[in-house]
C-alpha cells in the first residue's frame, strides 16, 4: 500500500488526521506538505482544517492542525476518485493473496 492509498483509506473512514497520528501510522513528519501533495492537488479536494490547542508535557501551550475529509458538493468528484484508488488497492491485495496460495 502506498502512502497515498493509506491516507485515502484513513480519511475516507471519517477520522481526523493530526501530526501525531500521521507520524505514528504513516511515518509522515510534515503532514501539511503531504496532505497537499498526495491528497488535495491530485484529487482536487479541499480538506477541512481544524486548529487545536493543548499543552505540552511541560505545561507550555501548543497548537496543531487536524485534517479531515468533508463530504461537500465541491469534493464529490475527488471523493469518488479516492474511493476508486482504495478499491484498486483492495483488488491488487486480493490478487497477491491468491498468488501466495498457489506457491
Word description of this protein:
This protein is globular. The model has no long low-confidence stretch (mean pLDDT 87). Helix 1 packs across helix 4. It has helices spanning 3-12, 19-26, 31-43, 76-102, and strands at 48-55, 61-68. The longest helix has 27 residues, at 76-102. The protein is built from 4 helices and 2 strands; from the N terminus they run H-H-H-E-E-H. With 103 residues, it is α+β, with helices and mostly antiparallel strands.
How far apart, in Å, are the first and last alpha carbons?
22 Å
User: What integer is the average pLDDT?
Assistant: 87
- Domain unit count: 1
What percent of residues adopt helix (DSSP H or I)?
Answer: 55-70%
Shape: globular
Strand percent estimate: 15-25%
Looking at the structure, the CATH topology is: Arc Repressor Mutant, subunit A
Structural class: alpha+beta
Please provide the count of β strands: 2
CATH top level?
Mainly Alpha
CATH architecture: Orthogonal Bundle
Count of DSSP helices?
4
Strand order of the largest sheet: 1-2
**Rg over CA atoms:** 16 Å
